Amino acid sequence: MEDGAQLADREKYQKIVGKLIYLAHIRPDVSYAVGVVSQFMHQPQVHHMKAVWRIIIHLIGKVGHGVLLKNNGHLKTQIYTDAGWGCEKGDRKSTSGYFTLVGGNLVTWKSKKKNVVALSSAEAEFRRIAQGV
Questions:
Q1: Coil, strand, or helix at residue 78?
Q2: Neighbours of 33 (CB within 10 A)
């Protein structure tokens, strides 16, 4: 939020972001960006709306992309995790995520800003690994 910035049309912003939230369930490539813009639903500013339009332009350029499930001949389970320590400029909270593959197919994913501030990058990583497992 910027002080004195011009406000966007809140109703239009909420409609578009609401549809993007629904779409993010099948498009993990935009789920983090949609999560960020959804934080400003109560009072969107013009630069927030510009970010929403950038997400839409990305989606238009990637029509036909999404989650693909195929038979890879195995059922090996893999979990990948990552965490960014103190990377949020506003409150210094960690952002982290994980995704799970079964048989080489993406089945779960999550990206979230943590509720607490981690004291180190190692702590942020271990918290995410524990949640991924």
A1: strand
A2: 17
What is the C-alpha separation between 83 and 98, in angstroms, rounded? 9
Determine contact, residues 38/21, Cβ cutoff 8 Å: yes
**pTM score, two decimals?**
0.59
Q: Token pair of 81, please?
A: 């995790």
Q: Which residue has the tokens 């972001």?
A: 17
Query: Domain extents for the chain?
Result: 10-61, 77-132
Determine the Cα–Cα distance for residues 132 and 31; give it in Å rounded to an integer.
17
CB 100 within 8 A of CB 68: no
- Are 77 and 69 spatial neighbours (Cβ–Cβ below 8 Å)? no
pLDDT digits (tens, 9 = 90+) for 96-128: 788 889 999 888 877 777 676 666 667 766 776
Give the position of tokens 């702590």. Answer: 123
> What phi and psi, each to the nearest 5 degrees, are found at residue 123?
-60, -45
